[in-house]
Design goal:
Elements: H1 3-14, H2 16-19, H3 28-51, H4 53-59, H5 64-84, H6 101-109, H7 112-125, H8 127-144, H9 155-182
Helix pairs in contact: 1-7, 1-8, 1-9, 3-6, 3-7, 3-8, 5-7, 5-9, 7-8
Length: 183
Amino acid sequence: MSLRLALVAVLTGVNAWRLAPGVPGADAVERIRRSVLGGAVFVAVAALVAGVSGPLLDAVSVTAPTARIAAGVALAVVAVRDLVTAPPSPEPSLAGDGAALVPLVFPYLANPGIVLLLLSVGHDRGVAAAAALALAAGASLVAVAPVAPSRVTSRWWRAVGVVPTAVAVAAAVAVTVDGVLDI
């Protein structure tokens, strides 16, 4: 899988425009701080997942193309779910900066589709590539968090969040096809 395709899949799969209103925090500074903390944890999760990708896939006898197919299917399921459900809410969340972990990293940033995609990228391209993709996704959230409303009330903001999600569905199909063509 090309890094361009992986970048599009990760950025649209995370979808900062849809996710940013779900970042817990009373004001923009608190939301930025939690986005930065969540992004840092997400990069660590990506590095961990990528680091164990080779031994993990070998242990369960899964080939790299099969992992890509699984990542594409999981990403498609998550993206379709995101198309038909309401955007995330800041509640419920852990108290204080724990909100950077739950709900921000788990389940929003590190959703099953993204984790499988990072596993596949880690196996194909290495830990640095997977961590860089996670860093780009975290940075996109930090960039959008200060301008996002604390709750999605306008149709405009909801529509802005739908566009990357629709692109995520297409990227998921492309990841799946890439895996199928490599078999």
